[in-house]
Amino acid sequence: MESEESRGQSATPLWRPGRRRRAPAYDIKREAVIATAARLFQEKGYRNTTLNDIAAALNVTKPTIYYYVQNKDEILAECRARVWGGITKVIQAASDSRKNGREKVELFVRSYAEAISTDYGKCLVMTVRDVGGAEAELRKYRQGLREATHVLRDIVAEGIRDGSIAPCDPRMAAFAMYGALNWITYWYDPDGPSNPSEIGEEFVRLFRTGLKPRLER
Amino acid sequence: MESEESRGQSATPLWRPGRRRRAPAYDIKREAVIATAARLFQEKGYRNTTLNDIAAALNVTKPTIYYYVQNKDEILAECRARVWGGITKVIQAASDSRKNGREKVELFVRSYAEAISTDYGKCLVMTVRDVGGAEAELRKYRQGLREATHVLRDIVAEGIRDGSIAPCDPRMAAFAMYGALNWITYWYDPDGPSNPSEIGEEFVRLFRTGLKPRLER
DNA sequence: GGAATTGGACCGTCCGGTCGTTAGAATCCA
DNA sequence: TGGATTCTAACGACCGGACGGTCCAATTCC
């Protein structure tokens, strides 16, 4: 199989390159497989969701899944990749922007809240703790989340230096905010009363001024 | 076999009942099984930890585990029960105390941080999301955590009424703080630089006054 | 008509759980 | 006191079911 493919790519193409061999619905169907799997993973966990579950939810049988995907791990990898793109953008945007530290933090909070509030986000947070998928992949995402916390910590520290944030332990502040954000995946319900942007906004307010009433005017 | 036993129980007991031979190490060993399992569950997840893993960590074989425990689910149940006691005490203490709303919140944060920072705590948080153990048990603890959030929300609302907390959305504030607390289980390392009580203290400070510098004196 | 799709049946493995057995310590009794 | 008895604690081997994954034939559709 491997040699066939590489031969096809190099000298005498067994299959003409430009010739579309798959129906246009292929990509859509593949996407449906991944989206459905993400929903189930997020509801029941990776290990507790069988390929038959996914197939049943799509009204097909297991071999059909395998027509669109190599194996179960690949499905999870796709789910994670989908949310990870959003998260790296959040990190980039927050750290590159020309703002003071506190504004960067608030941008981070707002946009992370939106990025994580999806089935893919729930899926990532869930499977990064409990094992899921290949070991190397898992480590990559664990490392990724850790780096996200570090970025948050660093922009908190920046805010302390530039005076926009009151002196505190940047590491703890980052952990607290990051935890609040990731925990959204445990309770957020798309059909519930508040949407991700409102959640982010309310979190920003809390982290900015705290619970205690301010006397200042 | 049955008739022998019933005969033995009724008229002339062939074996005196109640004559329990002592097994002093039994309880200790059972505890070791549960503690070891908790450590492994917390590291690798419930489903990803096999009974052979637990046995190997104790230098015994699988049937030995079954000498101390009915089945795998029971181990998880024991782990959860061990942390749940602490959590209910936190809830009780926080809501019953004669303090204003904000002080109650701060008590909750401090003591919850300590209660959750154990292998058992990590185990609970981990397995309450992904499935683990009997379905009914799982629902019970999910419900329990939800109630904990509600208590937190209610004492925030109380604080708003008594003026110790600035007006805000109590539900969101509760979710944020509760998330920060539960997320401790994702990153806390007993060998790390800060202990649970310091973590709780720093969280309290953040939630009380927020990041923004206060001008008031 | 041939490639794109799909399903029925099947395989191998892993894992929770069980069975029968046993070494040896503790206890009992002649 | 020493042999017979009984119980603890542990193990090796095995079972059955679930689940990821595969084969191949059937079917559908451009």
Task: Describe this protein's structure.
Two copies of one chain form a homodimer. Chain A contains ten helices and no strands. Chain A is mainly alpha-helical. Chain A has a domain at 78-209: Orthogonal Bundle (Tetracycline Repressor, domain 2), CATH 1.10.357. The longest helix of chain A has 28 residues, at 135-162. The N and C termini of chain A lie far apart (72 Å). At the A-B interface, helix 8, helix 9 and helix 10 of A face helix 8, helix 9 and helix 10 of B. Chain B binds a DNA duplex (30 and 30 nucleotides) through helix 2 and helix 4.
Notable traits:
mainly alpha, 217 residues, homodimer, disordered N terminus, Tetracycline Repressor, domain 2, DNA-binding, 10 helices
